[in-house]
Amino acid sequence: MAETIKLAGADGFEFSAYHEPAFTPHKGGVIVLQEIFGIDRHVRADVERWAKMGYEALAPALFDRLQRDFHAEHDDAGIKAGLEKARATPLEQALGDIAACRDFLGKHGGKVHVVGYCYGGSLAWLAACKVEGLAAASSYYGSMVQANAALKPLCPTIVHLGRTDAGIPADDVAAAVAEHNPDVPVYIYEGAGHGFNNESPERYNAEAADLARHRTLELFDKA
To answer: How much is the pTM?
Structure first.
């Protein structure tokens, strides 16, 4: 049964994390990294999906130091509020919280993986490159991937991008990753925009979401 737990970050601060044990025989753990909108219904639904696929899933509330239980709607006000929280959250702090999630899941056996979307997609890439002990990483449409493409992942990593994403130039990101990390697959989904895994009607692309999840599950199962 899903529950909200508390974990201590590297700075001693106790942040919340949405947690769900594996539904099927335990394969390992998955850290689910939020969009800028916080731990909303879409993040909780994704945690449940991973649990149903056999992974104990944990989604840290990365904005808790700024506002407990933050979540925002997918409108102009919500985007503004979420971006403010993301920009005010130091990257090393977020990576420290991801490491705390790694340690929690690691105690329960199996390898620990990370998947992230939007803001979380950027953090998944950075975690793959900077947080030791992760078995694999899957980054969805992270705006910071291109600027950090020269970093070297410490674990098998894949990147997912929407062709029609107005804010992230898919071909440029793919070229930057290929230049520095030619072994990292970058998948571009035709007809899909930003947030295509999110089941909000204005963003969801079922075909792209299903294929990206299949590729991510295959990566995690093999890692």
So the answer is: 0.97
> Between 3.40.50.1820, 3.40.50.1980, 1.10.340.30, 3.10.120.10, what CATH number should domain 3-222 receive?
3.40.50.1820
User: To the nearest 5 percent, what fractions of the chain are helix, strand and coil?
Assistant: 35, 20, 40
- The amino acid present at 22, given as its one-letter code, is A
Those residues whose C-beta lies under 8 Å from the C-beta of residue 99, and which sit 6 or more positions away, are: 10, 131, 133
Nearest CA to 104 among 36, 48, 28, 41? 28
Which of 35, 58, 82, 49 is closest to 212 using CA atoms?
49
- Contacts for 193 with CB less than 8 Å, ≥ 6 apart: 162, 163, 164, 165, 166, 203, 205
How far apart CA 154 and CA 124 sit, in angstroms, is 12
Residue holding tokens 């230049």?
Answer: 179
Q: 179-195: b or e for each residue (b if 16 or more CB lie within 10 Å)?
A: eebeebbbbbbeebbbb
pLDDT tens per residue across span 183-220: 999 999 999 999 999 888 788 999 999 999 999 999 99
First to last CA, the chain: 26
Q: How many CB atoms lie within 10 A of CB 104?
A: 20
The CA distance from 75 to 98, in Å, is: 27
Q: Each residue of 97-133: pLDDT tens digit?
A: 999 999 999 998 899 999 999 999 999 999 999 999 9
Q: Which residue has the tokens 């793959």?
A: 128
